[in-house]
Amino acid sequence: MSEFWNQKYARDDYFYGEQPNDFLHSQIFRLPTGARVLVVGDGEGRNGVWLAEQGFTVTTVDGSHVGCDKSRALAAQRKVSLEIVCADLLTWDWPVGAFDAVVSVFLHFSPDERKVAHARIQAALVHGGWLIIEQFHPNQLNGYTSGGPKAVDMLTTMGDLADDFNAIDWWLLAEGTTRLEEGPGHSGLGYVSHGVGRRQ
Predict the structure, then answer these.
(1) Which parts of the chain are coiled coil (predicted)?
(2) How confident is the model at residue 2 (pLDDT cuts 50, 70, 90)?
């Protein structure tokens, strides 16, 4: 998969744009000042760099070395610092109980791999730490052309998120349509599942 993403990101512009995800932007008010934030599957760094601009202590992880290089370039351009880790999330030595928040935006796996990754995301949070997550819903395949995997088993419902994150007290958990304006990679109406909650 890393080579797939290396090819996606091997372009002069940013495939998903340089601005943060709208759902993330709408929920960031919940995080305490200076929070330690882990951004998983951050691609070319748009969300991690923006969070660093807001004054958070950010670690961003992605499996694409091209994406990580573009994250570094974007951080230098915006004059912010963050820890950028280039690693396969399924084999990375995840910190446990280390972050005040974890952000996961359009990070998709097969069902078995998803459960492993989501368990590690949950474990990476301190008790009371925030999870902010958005993924494409299976209904995305019903005529929506704004991006995402084409395999239905890689898409998630609100119920899947609730099942996977069994130690999260959800403050918001929903599914439905949203308008995406995230570079050429995500453009137009999309059908998503998203949520925000705290680790119990």
Answers:
(1) none
(2) confident
